[in-house]
Write a structure and sequence with these properties.
The complex is a heterodimer of chains A (489) and B (518). Chain A has 489 residues and is an all-alpha fold. The longest helix of chain A has 32 residues. Chain A starts with 6 loop residues before the first helix and ends with a helix. In chain B, strands 1-2 form a two-stranded antiparallel sheet. In chain B, α16 packs antiparallel against α17 and α16 packs parallel to α19. Classes of the chains: A mainly alpha (489), B mainly alpha (518). The interface between A and B is medium-sized, with 32 and 35 residues.
Chain lengths: 489, 518
């Protein structure tokens, strides 16, 4: 048998190809960088690659292509997620350039790794067999481990990378076991064929499938930092370079959800009654623990780590009801969360200078008056994180709880909204220090303008408001994108 | 419908945003300019809202000046506004009080620009809440309005402002998110029975909500509104918020925000779930009477003027609830007019307390005494407002409380009788406070040289005094405007209507010529 790559194959993975190619190009450009010179050219190459890749994903909208003998697919669902990933990566590059220079970790490899990571995320979104999911996940994970440890002389950064690596490897083990068991029971690794095989009552009754599903959930639980598999998250997020933390809390999670949803719906759809009960409990635990523990934090990065756990809980709630409403909400929320989260991290980075990183609440006393424009943007992000109307965060949550209530899970919705109230307490602390507590001693200096950071903050703030006030276009696209998944039901 | 082709309701709601846009361009040290812009914009908004009064045709009733267009078609959420007799008057109250609050906050020079932005955004939220007829839109305004007030308390408040602001937000949000779940459930029920997605309130009115869902849904809505009113025992955020808030914040909080709670009962909770209302009526009436008495009794022991006024709000809002739950024309009409009265009188009281606080930086009753001497004009105005708050015939407070008691008596003589006691208590605590502050000799030397009201302060109070007298002597125009809406409300409760005896309640005109129910 000859192995031939057709044009369709390449078209299917066009966005990934662009990212990996441009990642290589970044490395080549890096070769010609004189020591001490800026990595701005590398950043620009990365931006170019990300934009091209995002555009490639946009072109894939409306397609239904399968490549490499059905291992990858280019459908609306994958395309929409790829666009979100491209947005995440774009914002990450924008907030990274000054941060890297300030922290003396100005290496071009950073951008290459970022592009590879995003490429891995895209593979996960378009993977149509277990092996591809795994390959995508590993590309993403290994790149992220290195990114976390980029601050080589910083103990916390090293700790972060080590922890992430060890626990990530552990989780990967679970995941592989799960995949192997499902393969053993069904005799295939193709997601849709697994779904078919499970319609056979004998296969369905095979305990291997059930163990496999459980292990898969554990593996994904680690990657998505779902309670009780979340322990690593705060330490990793706190220690990693802030720009990387921003990326980690939005990007890999979205990719994990993209793959998990496809697995659950297309492969394990027959066991929906069971996994939705498990997810119900996990969702309730995750949002509650994330929100309650976040209250205790004094480090904003750590607080945001717990907040990202809580938000994963909200998204899980939508997974419990895997209707087109619910899954559409996941897609919607992913973008909204990316924007508000990137925005708030951009503010943290903007406020920090070469001398000092500002990451605790106390560092920001009176900051809202030092820089009114940044204060206003922060206000938008915080309100969106809480889920106040006219922001994307609200529309996303509303859509999630709407889907949840429509399927009769009233109590899950109640737990969710009560959690939103809990979250008010710690999110508002940001506004309290920004506007309501006068600084003791020296106030924070006025942040130095930086075009990348300013653009990131502006884009995020406008995006959050746009999704909140005129959500229709993105709502429709997101619910259309998931309809391809649910066509089999 | 619109006036001269202008969508008047949208204009009133969003006009303040032009002020926000202008203020964003103002430099941070141009406080005077910021004040000027805010005053001009709130003034214009008030003027823009006036035509609503004349445009509202009471003979036709129902919702008028309606604007309706799609907002989020996927959900069936619409941009749907309309005013009935009650909401129209509440909007007028809002725009007037906002304007006066800006004028009253003339000396607020800490972050003036930001303060004015918060006030203007608050105004957008408040008018929006009163005019929205799409439940999703309503919820949007309802939540959005919370945060400007949070900032007003938290940034410009006094010592315990952070605590008070947080308490205010957490209390209100905790209750309103449960309402959100209820809204979603209603939306789902509506979808099930009609087959299309809609948040249109007028459609939801027609929905027959099954039991026991109706009971839970009503409970969720009622809780959200009860916290806002605030009904006993959900009132504990109120004294904190009021005492810590700056004057303008207190005025808006008492004058308008509390009305949102009662308005919510009137517009949403009660018409949607009439059967549940009937079941809960004894409890609700009991809570209303408890609030009336409790508020009044707590007032008796307050050493702080502002706290006293705050607790008196609990008592007065209890009256509003009592009238609403009487479910007869007198009661509901009284309750609606009492909402306006309370806005005017308590707004004025907070303004007055704020004025003395600006001079002395204390609100403790014991710090004053004999103010009649140095501040005769202030003392006179204060007396008129106090008397209106007590419910002296001829001033506005009387009309509302009288009608409410009349209505309540027809349904629940005991409740009405006990509540009437509170009127006496009100006279005691307010007049006693007045006596300690204004009568006798000046006990503290600092009070000797206190300046009387300035021209600006008189300008702030004058419109309220006019209203106090006007609504007391000749409330007919207001009652007339509200009549069809009140009738409609009572019709919506038809299943729950208790028998109204042909007692003295039927002929109120003979008792007081000024009060006409037709």
């Amino acid at each position: 048998m000859t192995f031939q790559i057709t044009q369709t194959d390449l078209q299917t993975i066009l966005p990934e190809l662009i990212l990996f190619g441009m990642g290589m190009l970044v490395l080549v450009v890096e070769l010609f960088r004189r020591p001490g010179a800026s990595t701005l050219p590398q950043a620009l190459v990365a931006l170019l690659g990300i934009s091209a890749s995002g555009y490639g994903a946009y072109l894939q909208l409306g397609l239904d292509l399968k490549g490499f003998s059905g291992e990858v697919i280019a459908d609306d669902y994958a395309a929409v997620f790829k666009m979100v990933f491209a947005a995440t990566a774009f914002l990450t590059v924008l907030i990274s350039t000054r941060y890297l220079a300030d922290r003396k970790m100005d290496f071009g490899e950073y951008y290459a790794l970022l592009l590879f990571a995003v490429g891995g995320m895209m593979v996960m979104a378009s993977a149509l067999d277990l092996l591809m999911v795994f390959v995508g996940l590993e590309i993403l994970s290994i790149s992220s481990y290195i990114l976390c440890g980029m601050l080589r002389h910083d103990v916390k950064s090293n700790e972060s990378a080590m922890k992430y690596f060890l626990l990530g490897a552990f989780a990967t083990g679970f995941l592989l076991y799960g995949m192997a068991m499902i393969y053993g029971a069904t005799g295939t690794i193709h997601i849709r064929e697994i779904g078919m095989a499970l319609t056979n009552p004998d296969t369905f009754a095979n305990p291997l499938v059930w163990f496999g599903m459980a292990l898969l959930l554990v593996g994904f639980g680690f990657k998505l930092s779902i309670v009780p598999f979340h322990m690593w998250t705060p330490d990793v997020y706190e220690g990693a370079p802030t720009a990387v933390t921003a990326f980690l809390s939005a990007g890999p999670k979205a990719a994990g959800f993209a793959a998990l949803i496809r697995l659950l719906v297309e492969a394990l759809g027959a066991m929906r009654g069971e996994w939705s009960q498990v997810l119900w409990v996990l969702a309730a635990l995750t949002m509650t623990l994330g929100n309650v523990v976040a209250i205790q934090q004094n480090n904003i990065k750590r607080m945001l780590a717990y907040s990202s756990i809580a938000h994963a809980g909200y998204i899980l709630a939508a997974l419990v009801v895997s209707t087109s409403e619910g899954l559409g909400a996941v897609v919607f929320y992913t973008l909204a969360y990316t924007l508000m989260n990137m925005g708030i991290f951009a503010v943290l980075i903007l406020a920090s200078g070469p001398d000092k990183e500002r990451v605790t609440f106390d560092d920001f006393k009176g900051f809202g008056y030092v820089s009114p424009a940044v204060g206003l943007a922060t206000l938008v992000f915080v309100l969106s994180l809480i889920g106040i109307p006219l922001t994307g965060g609200f529309v996303g949550k509303f859509q999630i709880f709407k889907a949840v209530v429509e399927q009769g899970y009233i109590w899950l919705a109640v737990i969710g909204v009560v959690n939103s109230v809990v979250s008010v307490y710690y999110y508002l602390r940001i506004l309290v220090v920004f506007y309501m507590t006068p600084p003791q001693g020296e106030p924070a200096p006025k942040p130095v303008f930086h075009p990348g950071l300013a653009a990131a903050i502006l884009v995020s703030a406008v995006g959050v408001l746009y999704l909140g006030i005129l959500p229709s276009a993105w709502l429709e696209l997101s619910s259309r994108s998931v309809s391809v998944l649910l066509a089999g039901f | 419908m619109s006036i001269l082709g202008i969508p008047i309701l949208s204009l009133v709601i969003f006009l303040p945003l032009t002020g926000v846009a202008a203020l964003l361009l103002v430099g941070r040290n141009q406080g005077a300019l910021a004040r000027g812009i805010a005053l001009a914009v709130t003034g214009l908004t008030f003027l823009a809202s006036l035509p609503m009064y004349f445009a509202y045709d009471a003979a036709m009733g129902g919702f008028q000046m309606v604007e309706q267009m799609d907002w989020i078609p996927a959900w069936g959420a619409q941009y749907f506004l309309g005013a009935d007799g009650v909401s129209m008057l509440l909007v007028l109250l809002t725009t007037l009080l906002t304007f006066l609050s800006v004028l009253a906050a003339w000396n607020e020079n800490r972050h003036t620009r930001e303060f004015m932005i918060a006030v203007l955004l608050l105004e957008v939220g408040m008018t929006g809440v009163f005019l929205a007829l799409d439940v999703f839109l309503f919820y949007v305004f309802w939540e959005v309005m919370l945060f400007p007030m949070y900032f007003i308390i938290g940034v410009w408040g006094s010592d315990r402002r952070l605590y008070a602001a947080m308490k205010f937000v957490v209390y209100t949000m905790a209750a309103s998110v449960l309402m959100l779940v209820a809204i979603l459930f209603m939306y789902y029920l509506n979808f099930q029975s009609t087959g299309h997605s809609s948040f249109n309130l007028l459609e939801w009115y027609h929905l027959k909500v099954p039991f026991p869902a109706q009971y839970w849904l009503f409970a969720a809505f009622a809780l959200a509104f009860a916290v806002k009113v605030p009904m006993f025992p959900f009132h504990t955020w109120l004294p904190d918020a009021h005492v810590e808030a700056p004057t303008a914040g207190s005025v808006i909080l008492a004058g308008v925000l509390l009305k949102m709670g009662t308005y919510g009962f009137y517009r949403f909770a009660m018409p949607m779930f009439p059967d549940a209302v009937l079941m809960a009526l004894p409890v609700l009436m009991g809570l209303a009477v408890a609030a009336i008495l409790y508020g009044a009794l707590v007032c008796m022991v307050q050493p702080d003027m502002k706290k006293l006024v705050a607790y008196s709000s609990v008592s007065h809002m209890g009256f509003v609830m009592l009238g609403l739950f009487a479910l007869n024309t007198q009661g509901v009409q009284g309750s609606m007019i009492q909402m306006l009265n309370h806005g005017v009188s308590t707004g004025a009281l907070f303004l007055l307390v704020g004025m003395i606080y600006e001079r002395r930086h204390t609100k403790a009753i014991a710090e004053f005494g004999g103010l009649m001497g140095p501040m005769p004009v202030y003392a006179t105005v204060f007396l008129v407002v106090v008397l209106s708050s007590i419910g002296l015939p001829g001033l506005n407070g009387f009309v509302g409380e009288y009608l409410i008691l009349l209505g309540a008596y027809g349904v629940n003589p005991w409740g009405a009788g006990v509540s009437a006691l509170a009127v006496v208590l009100a006279a005691i605590y307010l007049l006693w406070m007045y006596q300690r502050v204004f009568f006798g000799l000046v006990t503290k030397a600092v009070n000797q040289k206190l300046a009387d009201l300035t021209l600006r302060e008189m300008a702030v109070l004058a419109p309220l005094l006019v209203l106090i007298v006007w609504m007391g002597v000749y409330p007919k125009p207001f009652l007339d405007k509200m009549k069809p809406s009140v009738d409609q409300f009572i019709a919506s409760q038809a299943g729950a209507k208790p028998a109204v005896p042909e007692s003295p309640a039927a002929k109120p005109e003979s008792v007081k010529p000024g009060v006409s129910l037709r």
